[in-house]
Amino acid sequence: MDIRIRGLVTRMGENGTRWEKNFTHSLRTQVASGRSLSEKQIEILEKIESKYTDEELSKASEWASAWGETQKVEWAVLMRYYASTGYYRNLVLSWQLDQDAVPSLRDYTRITENKFARKILDGWRSDPVYAAGSMVSLRTSAKFAHRKVLTKGVGVVIKTNADEPKSACRGNKIYEVLPVGGVGTIMIEERYLKKARVK
């Protein structure tokens, strides 16, 4: 059993989480004292081992090689989103300390495939409904702050994807809009806009 655990520790290397390292260390201490592992401990050990098979390690190596600018930008979008929500603090902190570091395939998959992250990325990736130069007006659902700035109710789209989505919902793409007759632009989500009917 000690040889088995040491083999796992070697395969984990620097990829193992702190919890996994502490757990395997406690198992080695327990085995060295002559005590057997419980069924639950063996079950957890097997679960950790399944993450560090030759096949899984090969996938991780391929993932690191495939990491590119697109993934890096999308990861940054999500890390900034989660920094504002308070979730995944350890991952956010790691990213803030080293924004060029490549996250593990497991962490990337865990983050990008949850329903909230998918909505944020969908908003970021999707084609804009209103192109730059389009005339837009406000929907009835628009916030009071928008109506206060768009006093005439009509504006011109200056930029699409003007900022990263802040809300995990449909229509969260952010536009920079210049109100007709205004002197400054505002940021507004797609869900609050509609095509303006102008003469």
Instruction: Identify the overall geometry.
Output: elongated
Task: Name the helix and strand elements from N-terminus to C-terminus, one letter apiece.
Answer: HHHHHHHHEHEEEE
Percent of residues in helices comes to 40-55%
Given the structure, what is the number of helices? 9
Determine the mean pLDDT. 91
What is the CA-atom radius of gyration, in angstroms?
A: 25 Å
How would you describe what is shown here?
The chain is α+β, with helices and mostly antiparallel strands and 199 residues long. The chain folds into 3 domains: 2-52, no CATH class; 67-125, no CATH class; 135-195. Helices cover 52% and strands 12% of the residues. The chain has helices at residues 2-12, 18-32, 39-51, 54-66, 69-85, 89-97, 105-112, 115-125, 144-149; strands spanning 135-138, 154-160, 174-179, 186-189, 193-195. Strands 4-3-2-1-5 form a 5-stranded antiparallel β-sheet. Helix 5 (69-85) packs across helix 6 and helix 5 packs across helix 8 (115-125). The radius of gyration is 25 Å and the shape is elongated. The model has no long low-confidence stretch (mean pLDDT 91).
Q: How is this fold's topology laid out?
A:
Layout: H1 2-12, H2 18-32, H3 39-51, H4 54-66, H5 69-85, H6 89-97, H7 105-112, H8 115-125, E1 135-138, H9 144-149, E2 154-160, E3 174-179, E4 186-189, E5 193-195
Antiparallel strand pairs: 1-2, 1-5, 2-3, 3-4
Helix pairs in contact: 1-2, 5-6, 5-8
Structure summarized in a few sentences:
By secondary structure, the chain is α+β, with helices and mostly antiparallel strands. It is 52% helix and 12% strand. The protein folds into three domains: 2-52, no CATH class; 67-125, no CATH class; 135-195.
